[in-house]
Amino acid sequence: MELQLSRNLIFFDIESTGLNVIRDRIIQLAMIRYHKNGAPPEERTYLINPGIPISQEAMAVHGITPQDVANKPSFQQLAKEIFEFIGDADLAGYNSNRFDIPVLMEEFARVGIDFDVDNRRTIDVQRIFYKMEPRTLSAAYQFYCQKSIAKAHDALEDVRATIEVLDGQLRRYEGVDFVPEEGEVIPVPVRPDVDALFEFTNDQQIVDATQRLRYDHNGVIVFNFGKYIGRSVAEVLHADPQYYHWMLNKEFSFQVKKIIKRLVTEYQKSLKD
Fold first, then answer.
1. pLDDT of res. 134
2. What is the spatial distance between Cα 68 and Cα 134, in angstroms, rounded to a whole number?
3. Is 231 exposed, middle or buried (0-12, 13-18, 19+ CB in 10 A)?
4. What is the pLDDT of residue 51?
5. Domain-located, residue 224
6. Are residues 134 and 165 both part of a single domain?
C-alpha cells in the first residue's frame, strides 16, 4: 500500500480488560509504523499486565487470560518505549477514534505522560467502511480482501487486517465520490492522502475522543451531554463551579478534563483583559 505521508503513520490495535475507556486497561498493544521516507514498516507488539481483573466478556473475545499476562511488564514499565516508538506519528486503526485512542490516552495519563492527539491526524478505517459499506472488521476483511482473519482479536493480526482493508478500500473507491443521504457530495474522499482520509473519517464537530464536547455552528465548544447540552462549556463552568469540580472528580477522560481546565482558564483571563 502506498500512502502520501508527510510524517510517519502508525496503525495500531488494542486488546483490553473490558470496554470502558476510562476504567479498563490495555493487555495487548500492537503497532505497525509506516515511514514517510519509504523505509520498510516496523512492527511492535506487547502483552501487558493490566494490574486489574480481565472481564469474562473480554476473555471470551480475545482469549487472553490473567495467566498470559501475569509475568508481563506493566504499562508504566513500557510507557516510555511505546511513547518514543509513536513519536509525532499520525495514528490509524479500526474503531480507533472511539476506543483505541482514548484508551491509550488514559493509559499514558495514568503514568504522567501527556499524549496529545490534537496535532495528529487520525484515520479510522471503520468510518470509511461504515460510510461506504456498513459492517465489522471481520466482514470488512472478507468484503475488501476476500479472506478471513486467521486470529481475530489478536492485536497484531487485527492491525495487519486493518492495513489490508484500507488498501482494499483505496483500490475499490478509486475515483468514487461519496454521496450522503443529506448534504453535499464529497469528491473522491478515499484516496492515498492522509489529510483526505483524516477529514473523511473524523467528525470535525466533535472535540474529544469520548464525544462529550463538540463545536457549535459558531465554532464554540459546547456540551454534548447532560443538562447543559448545547451550551458553552467555558461560560457554564465559570458560572457553575460546582459542576466544574464534579466533572474533574468523575469518570471523564483525561482529555476532557484537560480541555475544560484550559477553557475555564482562558475564559477567566478574557474577563480580566
1. 61
2. 34
3. middle
4. 96
5. yes
6. yes
CATH value at residue 141: 3.30.420.10
pLDDT at residue 6, as a whole number: 94
State the total domains in the chain.
Answer: 2
Residue 207: inside a domain, yes or no?
Answer: no
Query: What's the alpha-carbon Rg for the chain, to the nearest Å?
Result: 20
Bridge partners of residue 34, in order along the sequence: 9
Residue 245 zone, left/alpha/beta (φ > 0; ψ -120 to 50; rest): alpha
- Centroid of chain to Cα 252: 16
Residue whose cell numbers read 459546547: 222
Q: Which of 33, 19, 31, 102 is nearest to 62 (CA)?
A: 19
Contact 132, 169 (CB under 8 A): yes
What is the spatial distance between Cα 52 and Cα 25, in angstroms, rounded to a whole number?
8
pLDDT at 131: 85
Report how far Cα 128 is from the mean position of its chain's Cα atoms.
14
Residue 181 has pLDDT above 80, yes or no: no
Q: Can you give the pTM of this predicted structure? A: 0.72
**Placement of cell 506519528 in the chain:** 89
Q: How far apart are CA 134 and CA 207, in angstroms?
A: 24
Q: Concatenated DSSP letters for 127-170?
A: HHHHHHS---HHHHHHHHHS---TTTT-HHHHHHHHHHHHHHHH
The phi, psi pair for 106, rounded to 5°, reads -65, -40
